[in-house]
Structure formats: C-alpha cells, structure tokens
Design goal:
This protein is mostly helical. Helix content is 44%, strand content 7%. It has nine helices and four strands; from the N terminus they run ααβαβαβαβαααα. It has a two-stranded parallel sheet with strand order 1-2.
Length: 304
C-alpha cells in the first residue's frame, strides 16, 4: 500500500481548498460599498420587563399549570407560525425560519495552534450587520441568532456564573479545531487563579480519548459535589432545621415534589438543594399550623 511521504502529509484538519482559502490572501477582492450613510442598531431597551426584577414575594407559590397571555401567544406566532405559513404560500426557495449571522469570519482569539491563526480579516462592521438584519427581515425571517466571539463569551460566562453563585462548576463541551480551548492558551488558568472557588472544565470531543475525558469529568464532579454538600450543610446550620424535618414537611405538601416546581433564587446560594432547603425553611416558618404542631410536640416532650 502506498504511504505518503512525510513532507506530503498535511498538518491541518481541513481539506486543502478550504485551508488555502482561509490562510492565503486573495489577490483581487471584490468589495461592496454600502449606499448612503452608515446604519447603526437602535439602543436596546434594558430591562424590557422591569417588573420581573422585583424581589419575589414571601407568599409566592408556583402555579399548578402555566398560563400564557394573548400577547405572548401572538408574539410566538409572529416569530414561528406566520413565517412558516408565508414560506409555504409564497414563491421562491429562500424562506428561512431561523438565520445565523456570523459577525466574525474567523475566531477572535487568534491562537497559534488553530487553523485561524492568521487573523487578518476584519470582523463585520455594525453597518454591514444592520443591513444584513434588514435584508433577512425582508425575506420573512423573524428569528435571528448572532454568532461569533465564542471564545471571549466562554470566559465571560465562566466569570458571570461564579461571581453570581449560579453554579458550582462550568463544563465547556466543544469540538477540537472548531473553537480554541481557552484553558490551553492560559486565559482560563489566569481567571481561575483570581477566582479561587471557580471550577472550569473544558472537554474537546475529538481532541482527547474517552477514558481521559471521563476521568477528568469525574474528578471535577467530585470537587463540585463536595462544594454543593458543604453549602447544603451550611444551610441546615443557618436554618436550624434537620434534614428529617425538611423531608417530613415536603412529604406533607405534594406541590413541593412536582418536577416543574419553581424554587425562588436566593442571592449567594448556587446549589439547587441549598436553594430548596432555604425555601422549605421559609415555608415552615410562615406555616401557622406547622408551628402550632411543633409547639405542642415540644411541650409534650418537656412534660414527658
């Protein structure tokens, strides 16, 4: 069997025409110059629903069944149902229901080991993005996803979840060669050194063996479980309730055992079990029947 010479083996994971297109400069590039003044996106309204930022009332309980308003139903129909019906009734082949707009032709991390190492092509301007969105809107598309900058977003997501106590561990699952692993170039290692409680685990689907990936996940999960267990035990100490007390109260209230029961979020608590323990403790403290029964039980024990 013929084996290629060592010099003939390609050192990249893409086909030759695509690799040459991405790395070789184009001698004659056709530029489309926009007509008129540069366009800009309008300033986003934030928050769009300020009433949802208010603190959760103490007497709030999760509804047994979700109910949607007429405005919510109509907004969903405008985004999905109406474009689908229009695509079936109008002529032409291009009627996207959802579109992905890539604002960066290459990855903006510019890592030396990635095929996009020579990042000389500038990203999309705001004027081009605005005109692209208007053109997609003219085709009937009402759902648009902006793509690009995933490397920096991964670092920001890790910091956001850690600072706001939203999770105990962040696991980034990504294919090798598609988006560079930010831990490899030292970005995440620098971030982890600043935030001591951060647990970040990048897993590349084709960059490492199954056994190696499984062992790394198991070690990270063990550390995250230890943090969650310590947090839950701290909640029990703060509330003064035992685990048996919480289980007994939950057993008497079936609505707390529903899979879609919404547990109010408490700032500074990441684990779901700790959030639930705090919530059950608040319900127990407000439950007059439960408090009366506990006082009777304590009086009976003292008499005995």
């Amino acid at each position: 069997m013929y084996e290629p010479h060592e010099d003939q083996r390609q050192s990249f994971r893409l086909d030759v025409p695509l690799h040459q297109l991405l790395t070789s400069p184009v001698s004659e590039r056709v530029e489309l110059r926009p007509v008129g003044a540069p366009q800009r996106f309008p300033e986003p309204v934030f928050p769009q629903h300020p009433e949802l930022l208010a603190p959760i009332p103490d007497d709030w309980t999760a509804p047994e069944k979700r109910r949607f308003t007429a405005g919510q139903i109509y907004g969903t129909m405008r985004g999905w149902l109406f474009p689908y019906i229009r695509s079936r009734l109008t002529g032409g082949d291009f009627h996207p229901l959802i579109a992905y707009l890539f604002t960066e032709f290459k990855c903006n991390l510019d890592c030396h080991y990635c095929w996009a190492f020579d990042n000389k092509i500038k990203g999309m301007t705001e004027d081009t993005a605005k005109r692209s969105v208007d053109w997609l809107h003219g085709t009937g598309c009402r759902v648009l996803a902006f793509m690009g900058g995933e490397g920096h977003m991964e670092v920001g997501k890790n910091i956001f979840y850690t600072v706001n106590h939203l999770c105990h561990m962040v696991l980034a699952l990504k294919p090798f060669g598609c988006m560079p692993s930010t831990q490899s170039d030292g970005v995440q290692s620098r971030v982890v050194s600043k935030f001591k409680d951060m647990i970040f685990l990048p897993i590349e689907t084709s960059g490492e063996g199954e056994v190696n990936a499984h062992s790394r996940v198991q070690m990270a999960l063990a550390e995250a479980k230890a943090k969650a267990r310590a947090e839950f035990e701290g909640v029990l100490q703060k509330t003064g309730k035992s685990l048996d007390d919480l289980r007994e109260y939950v057993a008497e209230h079936p609505q707390l055992r529903r899979g879609l029961y919404k547990v109010p979020h408490r700032d500074g608590v990441a684990g779901t079990a700790a959030q639930f323990a705090f919530h059950v403790n608040d319900l127990m403290n407000r439950d007059r029947v439960y408090r009366r029964r506990m006082r009777v039980a304590m009086s009976t024990q003292q008499v005995a």
